[in-house]
Amino acid sequence: MPQLNDSAGPASTSAEAQPAGVVRVLLVDDEALMRAGLRLILDGAENISVVGEAGNGQEAVGVAGRVHPDVVLMDIRMPGTDGIQGCRGVRALPDPPQVLMLTAFDTDAFILDALEAGAIGFLLKDTPPRNLVRAVQDAAVGTSSVSPSVLSHLISVAAAQGRRPVQQEATEGEGAALRGAAGDATGAQAAPGRPAGPDPLDALSDREREIADAVARGLTNTEIAEEMFLSITTVKTHVARVFTKLDVTNRVQVAIMVLQHGRR
């Protein structure tokens, strides 16, 4: 059983060298019990090692600068320096680690702010252990992980406010969550926050607009190919062109833009 480093306090670090290929993780939460639980899960996983802990965002920046983690798993709400400020600080470090945010509520008002601060993903604190482990491993290679209910809320809020989140990379697996989110956010199309001016979707061809609408409905590339009788390669090409023309980097951003400006 992994040993808990509770004697070292919340800002503890590990200077031990790790084998190549091991994902180094820094835990940041003001609750020692939460950190202990996360440590048990992650230290028990293959190719993951918890190399440090911190009790708030300010401590996280200092510890991260010393232990050089690959991933920082950070609570979004903490007394003192919260997770948003901590995320900005960590991401400003040289060769910064990826930041995965933890939240107790899928309707947390700070989720979009943390995403804009540079977080690569969001997980609920009740995420199953196997999903937590996979999210940490994905974050280490730059792949986004977002709990489905968090993603649904994120799209609804962003569409209503006319804001576009910035994510490093997103996976096609978000499609299932986008299905529910697209329905939830439909009412946001006429919200006061809807952007004025030219419709950026006008830059798309008719086929690309159909692809964008399908992405906003949460369809994967495979499902789009089946629905439109296209090859997977053709769909991927169209999706890439949509990303380029809309100046976005992932499917969540495409969905938000479609919801903001209305589907055909």
UniProtKB/TrEMBL annotation:
CDD domains: LuxR_C_like (cd06170), REC_NarL-like (cd17535). Residues 24-140 form the Response regulatory domain. One of its GO terms (molecular function) is DNA binding. Residues 179-203 are annotated as: Disordered. It comes from the Bacteria. GO terms for biological process: phosphorelay signal transduction system; regulation of DNA-templated transcription. The keyword Phosphoprotein applies. Residues 197-262 form the HTH luxR-type domain. InterPro entries: CheY-like_superfamily, NreC/VraR/RcsB-like_REC, Sig_transdc_resp-reg_C-effctor, Sig_transdc_resp-reg_receiver, Tscrpt_reg_LuxR_C, WalR-like. Pfam families: GerE (PF00196), Response_reg (PF00072). Keywords: DNA-binding, Phosphoprotein, Transcription, Transcription regulation. The keyword Manganese does not apply. The modification 4-aspartylphosphate is found at residue 75. Gene3D superfamilies: 3.40.50.2300. This is Response regulator transcription factor.
